[in-house]
Amino acid sequence: MAHRVASLVFFACGICSLSATHVCPPENFTTVQNFDLDTFISKMWFVQQQMPVTYLPKSQNRCVFAQYSKREKPGIWGYEVGVHNHAEDVAPPHKVHDSGSTLCAKVVDPSSGKLAVAPCFLPSFLAGPYWVIAYDEGQGFALISGGAPAKASPDGCRTGTGVNGSGLWIFTREQKRNEKLVNKVRGIAAAKGFDLSVLNDVDQTECSGSGSGSGSGSGSGSGSSSSAEASAADMLI
């Protein structure tokens, strides 16, 4: 009996030590500092790796990119930035999932790269967090998270997998994959406490038309504006 009790105590202590390994969000978790929004949105971003979420499953990990632009007027809900996302099905015939012009972003904290994204018709208090965790224009990369990674896992901290408060993305300016650069950003994410096991590769080869960015954007929905509006509430990048 004593041996059995000791074993149970040892097992319980093991669970406690595992759960105590990761404090989520990590202590002193920070985003980018001295963020320059105008430079960040000046050119297209290509997604090289991303976390599967409800609105952007692994089956759409092809030719994913994001474009942003300043809006002339913020509108009633105060959205300053237009968001245009694009993704395609991995499986042929590579169905396009396009947000069109239905998404907008509100700047929450300009210096620390904190924005919130939602369909333009929704009040901004319903928008989901879009945080720039790291960004280097010279090297051409950005690390984006759907808010702070508050969920603990055996391999680190994660965001959610639903709509708001979900997702992790590695952006690069160049569409062609640079493995060294992707690994550098993965290292930054790991140092921030993120669980890297959630990241999957995005196929950026043979993406005809996506490089120009005309008539394309990322997320869920189809190329038609009506279906994009129906699913735009699910898109955060």
Give the helix/strand layout:
Elements: H1 2-21, H2 37-40, E1 45-50, E2 62-70, E3 81-88, E4 96-98, E5 103-109, E6 114-119, E7 128-136, E8 141-145, E9 151-153, E10 156-158, E11 168-172, H3 179-191, E12 200-201, H4 225-231
Antiparallel strand pairs: 1-2, 1-11, 1-12, 2-3, 3-4, 3-5, 5-6, 6-7, 7-8, 8-11, 9-10
- Low-confidence regions: 5-20, 212-234
Mean pLDDT across the residues is 85
Alpha carbon gap, first and last residue: 56 Å
Sketch the topology as an H/E string, one letter per element: HHEEEEEEEEEEEHEH
Rg, please?
19 Å
Structural class determined from secondary elements: alpha+beta
Number of strands: 12
Sum up the overall morphology in one term: globular
Relative helix content: 10-25%
Number of helices: 4
What does this structure look like?
The chain has 237 residues and is α+β, with helices and mostly antiparallel strands. The strands form two sheets. Strands 1-2-3-5-6-7-8-11 form an eight-stranded antiparallel beta barrel. The radius of gyration is 19 Å and the shape is globular. It starts with a helix and ends in a 6-residue tail after the last helix. 40% of the residues are buried.
Name a few traits of the molecule:
single chain, 237 residues, alpha+beta, 8-stranded antiparallel β-barrel, 4 helices
Quick rundown:
By secondary structure, this protein is of the alpha+beta class. The chain has helices at 2-21, 37-40, 179-191, 225-231, and strands at 45-50, 62-70, 81-88, 96-98, 103-109, 114-119, 128-136, 141-145, 151-153, 156-158, 168-172, 200-201.
